[in-house]
Amino acid sequence: MTSSAISPAIIRPDLLRDQFVAAMSRVPLSVAVVVAGAPEHRLALTVGTFISVSADPPMVLVSVKASSPLCKAVSTHRRYVINVLSAEQVEHSERFSGRPRTGRPYDLTAARWTGVPGEPLRYLEGVVAAFDCELVEAQPIASHVLLIGRVDEIILGAERPLVYWSRSYGIPSPLSGAV
Ligand SMILES: Cc1cc2nc3c(=O)[nH]c(=O)nc-3n(C[C@H](O)[C@H](O)[C@H](O)COP(=O)(O)O)c2cc1C
User: How much distance in Å is there from the Cα of 49 to the middle of ligand 1?
Assistant: First the structure.
């Protein structure tokens, strides 16, 4: 605990919120693009809340703002893909969070997609890993919905993941000598 820490007993709720946001910005996140919807009307959204829930069976979680159209698409179609971005894919993160440097926000045609022959393309090319999921539970909590999915198919790809940390993008770098 540093000397700048404020006692929890005296902190005001608005200050606590600011501290929470500042503290969470110090926590590194992976960056993923979640894709869902009908083949002819798919939606994609950037998330940083992707975690593993269980390996037996393989299950994962993302937390998505309840007002996002992606929540409705996942709940309706029950299937979605979580594409974990590689270090070269900042552009995708920005596009699918609605703030691309060029082009239209949330434009799936601006990215290259791949998939199983005969099925709609749903994997982003160049990702570190992709998880094809069936929705198990959509749990509303505060402003968000926790989407828990059972993983049915996995794609393994590039090796260097993209990381979001301190409101910037980066790449993880191993510490020499550390296990
Ligand atoms: C690195 C990064 C991580 C994000 N993580 C999440 C997330 O986990 N859940 C979420 O709902 N939105 C997340 N967002 C925000 C969405 O991508 C998108 O910007 C937001 O839903 C747009 O909301 P608005 O239309 O209300 O502005 C993230 C954005 C970025 C750039």
Answer: 10
